[in-house]
Structures are given as C-alpha cells and as structure tokens.
Amino acid sequence: MPLDGSGRSEKLLQLAKRIRLENRNQNPDANVTVSNSRAHESQSAAEPIERNRAAVLICLFEDESGDLRVILTRRSSKLSSHSGEVALPGGKRGENDSDDAATALREAHEEIGLDPSMVEIVAALEPFHTRINIAVVPVIGVIWDKTAFEPTLNAAEVESVFDAPLEMFLKDENRRQEEQEWKGHKYFRHFFDHRIENETYVIWALTAGILIKVASVVYQRPPSFEERRPPFWSIRN
Questions:
Q1: What is the pTM of this model?
Q2: Which residue intervals define the domain Nudix hydrolase in the entry (predicted)?
Q3: Which of 57, 63, 110, 160 gives 104 a disulfide partner, CB atoms 3.0 to 4.6 angstroms apart?
C-alpha cells in the first residue's frame, strides 16, 4: 500500500480528510473536538453530563491488501445484558469525559486496552436512539499501525476481540433479516454472519445498523439491500 513520509497509508489519509470535511460541513456543531491527548481531561462545569448519552468507537485500519477493516468485540457471557453479543467498543458517557470522542476512546481503552494515542479521531456521526432513549453516537477513528495494537481484554466485559471488513456491511452476502414492528412502523433487523476460522460472529441490531451507516459514509454508496431502519433510531427528544 502507498505510504506517506511518516509511514501512514495515503488511502487512509485521504479518506480521513474527506470524512472530516464532510462531517464538519454537515454537522458544524458535532461534539467531536477532542484530540488524542485530551481523552481523559475533566469536563468543564459549564457542560452538564447527559446521562442518556453513549458513544461507540468505529476504529478503522487498512489490512495488507489495502482493504478497510473495523475492530469489534464479543461481550462477556457473564454480563447481565446483551451477554455474548457482538459490539463496538463503547459505553455511556462518564463524568470526566469532555465529549463523545473522549467517551469512545476511554471505553475502548478500558474494554480492550486500545491506547487512545494510537487512534486519530475523524468524525462523530448523528446519534442513533435506542428504544429506551439512549443516544448512541458513532465516533469514527483511524488506527495507522494495527500491528502495534496488542489487545488487553477486560474479562468482566469482553470475551474476545476481532475485526471484519467494513465493506461487508454494504453487501447482501452472508446477510439475513427479520421484519419487526414498532408503533405500527415495520422495519428490518439485519444479521451479518462473519466467520473467522472455526468461529462465527453474528453482527446484528444496533451494531449492524451503525456499521451500515459508517460503511455508506466511507464508500459513498448505499447498501445493496433495502435497509428500512427502525423509526426510533432517528427520534430526538
């Protein structure tokens, strides 16, 4: 893959530049001003914590073939909620988080040992709202040297860490769907089956929806299937 003078992928550099510019133009008030070094700074007293806000990190990297991949986790089977499910690193906003990027970086560090200094934050997308009114903000970041990342798992929260090709979330291969209904509105719940050696990871629900959105932004095209999103994902209270 072509590299710049600092050893970083030219493809990733251009991608990060484009997404950052597009995000700034579309969301001038986006809460993603954090830099890597500010990830653990205290929040200003003038910025009250939103208890119903969370953030997840979509950490992208380029593999040896030049394809983009995203880091994912499987939640611990001992957790009381969503146990054993595939997820993106992330969680609820903490008292000392300065913004959404800080939340995503902190959670990724706590869950899988990803050093915030290894990640360059690119953009924060519009939040997805859950049925219980949690606003989940997808924060896109880039890791320039994936080989330098040695996962350290928090066994209480994470069972395993793996990666998947980002483009798979725009394809109809290894995908299935279930029709659901909410307040008279019908929508699809998507399931993506990702096999690694003898293990199959099922990526579904909100995680799948976020990755469909991110893949659409990155590759600048819609998915090859009908998405039909849940109406509550875009509700703002």
A1: 0.88
A2: 51-192
A3: 57
How many residues comprise the chain? 237
The pair of structure tokens assigned to 164 is: 């998947």
DSSP result, 202-216: EEEHHHHHHHHHHHH
Q: What is the 3-state secondary structure (H, E, C) of 134-198?
A: CEEEEEEEEECCHHHCCCCCCCCCEEEEEEEEHHHHHCCCCEEEEEEEECCEEEEEEEEEEEECC
For residue 235 the two structure tokens come to 């509700």
Instruction: Give, as one character, the DSSP assignment of residue 27.
Output: -
Structure tokens at 10: 């030219």
Give the β-pairing of 68-75 and 175-182: unpaired
For the 10-41+51-234 domain, the top CATH level (class) is alpha beta
For the chain, domain boundaries? 10-41+51-234
Q: Which residues pair with 88 in a beta bridge?
A: none
Which of 26, 8, 52, 1 shows the shortest CA–CA distance to 235? 52
pLDDT in tens, 108-156: 999 999 999 999 999 999 999 998 889 999 999 999 999 999 999 999 9
Cβ atoms of 71 and 89 closer than 8 Å: yes
Scored b (16 or more CB within 10 A) or e, 199-220 reads eebbbbbbbbbbbbbbbebbee
Report CA 64 to chain centroid distance, whole Å: 22
Encode pLDDT of 154-210 as tens digits: 999 999 999 999 999 999 999 999 999 999 999 999 999 999 988 999 999 999 999
